[in-house]
Amino acid sequence: QVQLVESGGGLVQPGGSLRLSCAASGIIFSIYHMGWFRQAPGKQRELVAIITSDGTTNFADSVKGRFTVSRDNAKNTVYLQMNSLIPEDTAVYYCTARRPRMDYWGQGTQVTVSS
């Protein structure tokens, strides 16, 4: 069974940091592109960051310079390091694993940025 399990979400104050993790099982992790999406109440789901199987990264303009995405193929895990958090980052964050003909999604983890 394919599973993507996110962890690391929670409540933080503006200016704080969180590191989200996504542990994958049931796939050949090293050949999948991995990504992070988020969805805030009343807003469209948006792509936050992606890291390809060969390590190329891209970020949404709203998080560029504040977030970093990385992967550890030996641990079947992708990370999203979130720094300088602002209230607008509040959302459910989802991990994705992508191939040309197959996508998988995690259950999501809540990130709330509030004072």
Portion of residues within helices: under 10%
Number of helices: 0
Gross geometry: globular
Provide the β-strand percentage band. Answer: over 45%
Q: Spans with pLDDT under 50 lasting ≥5 residues?
A: none
Overall pLDDT metric = 97
Regarding quaternary structure, what we see is single chain
Amino- and carboxy-terminal Cα gap: 40 Å
Count of DSSP strands: 11
Secondary-structure element order, N to C: EEEEEEEEEEE
Which structural class best describes the helix and strand composition? mainly beta
Descriptive notes:
- By secondary structure, the protein is an all-beta fold.
- The protein has strands spanning 3-7, 10-12, 18-25, 33-39, 46-51, 57-59, 67-72, 77-82, 91-99, 102-105, 109-113.
- Strands 2, 4, 5, 6, 9, 10 and 11 form a seven-stranded mixed β-sheet that branches. A four-stranded antiparallel β-sheet has the order 1-3-8-7, with no helix packed on it.
- β9 and β10 form a beta hairpin.
- It is globular, with a radius of gyration of 13 Å.
- The mean pLDDT is 97.
Strand and helix map with partners:
Blueprint: E1 3-7, E2 10-12, E3 18-25, E4 33-39, E5 46-51, E6 57-59, E7 67-72, E8 77-82, E9 91-99, E10 102-105, E11 109-113
